[in-house]
Amino acid sequence: MPESPYPGVVVDGGGRLILGGCYATDLARHFGTPLYVVDEGVLRSRCRAYAGAFAAGFPQSRVAYAAKAFLTADMCRLVEAEGLWLDVNSAGEIAMALSAGFPPARMLFHGNNKTPAEVRLAIESRVARIIVDSLWELELVARLAAQAGRTAHILLRLAPGVRADTHAYVQTGLADGKFGLAIAGKNGTCAAEVAAAMAIASPHLRFYGVHVHVGSQLLDLRPLREAARRAVRFAASISERCGWRLEELDLGGGLGSPYTSETPPAITALAAALARVVKAECRAAGIPLPAVLVEPGRSIVAEAGTTLYTVGGTKVTPHGPAFLSVNGGMGDNPRVALYGARYRVVVADRVTAPPARAYHVVGRYCESGDAIAFDCPLPQVRAGDILAVFATGAYHHAMASTYNLVPRPAIVVVDNGWARLSVRRESLDDLLRREVGPGEAQAVCLGPAGAHAGAVAAEVAATGEEETSSLVH
Q: Is 366 a catalytic residue?
């Protein structure tokens, strides 16, 4: 890898890997491994690329970073400083953003099964938009807004019926999927039309527009263009029938990242393609051009991240592959097990050394499916070597677990040769903190015996006679 395909990644003349101006081996030595390394300069560059491309394509545009890809307090502050909005998916993500000082007036709240408590939090926090995912959720939002004496500002999430060429688990625009309101239905009616009529009629809702999202890790712009086309046509039909005006069109995210040999479209190509479709459809329908929102996540953060591991040992099987074990795995990177994801791997201090053999890089977890990468051509590897896995910024920290009670990694932010801790490494004390010890909580009987206990208590209170109960308190 003499010339890196990843921004911010450099290899010096001695074959040593440099991330954000910092030697990878020095980062590992100072902060320990496994370690998520995030390049601040790359993050800012990608945020600005999106903002610039969509400002050029649309008179009014807003870029909302998709928090589910990677969210920390530092990330919230960076996104806020770059002028982007934030797409959040839970009370936890809202709380993280608020704790970092992110303005709720620039938050979009997503989710296909928002709880009443989460909707109340969104309304009370005055998030900019609640993206409503279903008819029952529309009723819930309207009811809770009425109870709070406020008006909820909403977009309706459409299910446009567009199939994207990506893994089945990250296809999100299907008419029969779990997300959104279908724009096609039987007998000439559909859920999206019913929801739009309800939203327009409700005194507790301010209905700004519609949202579409067709999938993740997209390498082809055609499904994104088609979803935009269907969204504008649906909104135009509602406008014609109900006298409602489309003010905002949220086209979601999903642009892919180059993990190995993928070549996703450029951000400028995405913006230009969507601008052509939306402007043409609005002209054809005779409706004003709305404000356009997009929600990139992976394509902002994936390439900004690299994970460092320490090699434990190797194993050569009699008739099969050679295994190389590291001190992390599916707990900090579940994407290989979930989606069959593929990555580039190098030895951090011998990047340019000729390969000695191909290894399957596997993790420390008690699962045969615990792997990082397959058939990686690497030089002779020794215990204690530092391995670097590229493009791990998206859906690694966000999806990390404590499986096998292994603590989650630290996060370090690098920029121009400086490194600072952003999220501390989880400790064994952190893992044990949620456990409830003996005597800390009183048992509550909620089974059939509870009715007997209640009856006994009532009888004792009425007669003054005591009866020994078999219940343990």
A: yes
C-beta atoms surrounding 424 within 10 Å: 12
Place of tokens 């309304």: 123
State the Cα–Cα distance between residues 182 and 188, nearest whole angstrom. 12
Map tokens 């088609």 to a residue: 226
Q: How many Cα atoms are found within 13 Å in the side-chain-facing hemisphere of 366? A: 5
**Which pLDDT score, from 0 to 100, does residue 288 have?**
95
Selecting among 76, 366, 376, 445, the annotated active-site residue is 366
Which residue's structure tokens are 């979803």?
227
In this prediction, residue 83 has a pLDDT band, given cuts at 50, 70 and 90, of: very high
| pLDDT tens digit sequence for 261-315 | 889 999 999 999 999 999 999 999 999 999 999 999 999 999 999 999 999 989 9
List the end-to-end C-alpha distance of the chain, in Å, as a whole number: 65
Domains, the chain, ordered by start: 9-39+302-432 (2.40.37.10), 110-296 (3.20.20.10)
DSSP SS3 for 88: strand
Residue 451 — pLDDT band, cuts 50, 70, 90? low
3-state secondary structure of 59: coil
The CA angle 434-438-443, to the nearest 5 degrees, is 90
How many other C-beta atoms can be found within 10 angstroms of the C-beta atom of residue 165?
12
Question: Which of 464, 284, 260, 275 is CA-nearest to residue 345?
Answer: 260
Encoded tokens for 321: 């592959």
